[in-house]
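Thread: Modeling a multi-component assembly for a lab meeting

Hi all, long-time lurker, first post. My supervisor asked me to bring a structural picture of a complex we are working on to next week's group meeting, and I have zero experience with this. I have the sequence lines for every component (476 residues in total). Could someone generate the structure of the whole assembly? Inputs are pasted exactly as I received them:
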Amino acid sequence: MKRAAAVLSLLLLVLVVVRSGRARAETPPQTRQAPPPVAGETLEVPPPPFSDGIYPCNTCHDSLKPNPTRRVLEFHDEIQLKHDEQHRWCLDCHDAVNRDVLHLASGQKLSFDESYMLCGQCHGEKLRDWRAGVHGRRTGQWNGHKTYLLCVHCHSPHQPHFKPLAPKPAPKPPMRPIR
Amino acid sequence: METDEVPEGKLPKGVTRREFASIAAAAAAGWLTTACGNRRLHEIPKDKLRSAVARMEAEYAAQYGRAVRVSDTGPMDDVVFAYALDISRCVGCRRCVHACVEENNQSRDPEVQWIRVLSMDKEKGVDFKDANPYYAPETVPEEGHFYVPTACQHCRNAPCTKVCPTGATWTEKDGIVVIDYDWCIGCRYCMAACPYGARHFNWGKPTLPAEQVNTNMHVLGNRPRQQGVVEKCTFCIQRVREGRYPACVEVCPVGARKFGNLLDPKSEIRYIIENKRVLLLKPELNTMPKFFYFYGT
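Re: Modeling a multi-component assembly
Sure thing. I ran the full set together rather than chain by chain. Output:
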């Protein structure tokens, strides 16, 4: 593990040097480490529900130049943004420099594990209820260890409206005596 | 009524000494039989209860061919259970209904379900007159409808426990209203007394396929029932007395179901009561339910 990490950091260093050498000094030197926790709390959440093979994003995005203009995407065309799409765009939440992280409105970087902080920027009252255990499903012990779900486990961040479900079978109506 | 009254110390006319003695002897014999026979589960001393439970375990293990655990865990100190349900979130998918059946060993045929999800018209509000439990669209929620799942409300002032002629149902110290199936005589007074339709009667012999038996049982909860007894929601007593959430809470895909200790100021239930718009079903009946409905939005 240590060896792999060392190789990775060396690679990153080389990458940074090469990039800055290409006169791209306007982008700050990037780090590939997870950003420090923002929320200042330890909530146990399952890993975010990434589509298969999509993460880490930098596998592809490292070789792509960030394009901040709003446009119809050529890749990721399965994503239909229906989440205040008049005013929102990918890079409002995804970090342009390091695609493996998100960022808050303040610019502070945020790991996908803490994405609830990002949602809570607009949906503050939902975040408050979620922390209290009132919004969203909770499993575990009522008097002890509880497991939370991230917002994105139930609400797709790109189309947050809860999808309709097929109901389980209805009860049988009571039988009446046949006259 | 006054004519029926007997002056003190005098027998009514027409009763001979012999008749009186026979009746008195019969009453004494009846009382003795009751007092010496099986006791209700809340009256049995702890060691006797343990051996009774061991007998049940052996009986069910033989019946279903599987190892069965019947718990007799009692209530915890400083705990009163309460439930809250977010009717602004419930989509009426009935996952809870079927998870409850699997968890609590209800009869599969004839069908017994402890939770009943009522579809209501948004224009009419919470209105039992026009509520429909038999809705079956392709997908839920349906346009213009909202859903009110009902089950036992675990009333603090429970009408059902007052009418039971044999004392087969009572409220435990932690607020769970329970039934002793061995004392239930199937008179169904409690069903008539319950304003929420929460109690269900085993009209037929309950069928429970051996492979579907939940082997984690509680003596006051999901142990298999016999024909002719009443049953109802126990907040999953076999789970909650061990600190777990009820099955319906864990299965709800929208997280509308909340459960906790009413006496713990930091519990979800207390947060809901203090911060949300909460309503009770039929509050005018003064049943004082421990099942709260709220609007999470």
